[in-house]
Amino acid sequence: MIRSIIHDEMFLSVPSEKAGKEHLQTVQDLRDTLHSVRERCAGMAANMIGVNKNIIAVTMPFGEMVMINPVIIRKAEPYETEEGCLSLKGQRKTTRYRKITVRWQNENMEVMKADFSGFTAQVIQHEIDHCAGIVI
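Above: the chain sequence. Below: its structure as tokens.
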């Protein structure tokens, strides 16, 4: 189901809670909502649709990839950039890393690990910040 985008910075600044198998409907809602705004948004965290769970979705060439309880376990090559956010107005400065390694659970709750770089790495970092209650 496509959900409304949350713009309340107080809500967005609350760190998300660990997600489990019982939150798979949120996974689908997040995927549906991201797909509906794919022309102007490359990633989304569950708190952006009003669910305070540690789930993100990122647009990939093959569709929307969902990460449940993602954690960055390695980062390299920091750089300064400015980012926009569907939930917020304007651009904000931040530090990102060109290369990251992330560990997460897929929709079967299997632990996954992969390396990401470039724009995809930047989007994943932005969404993981959302889960941590960091408003960029």
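The radius of gyration is 14 Å.
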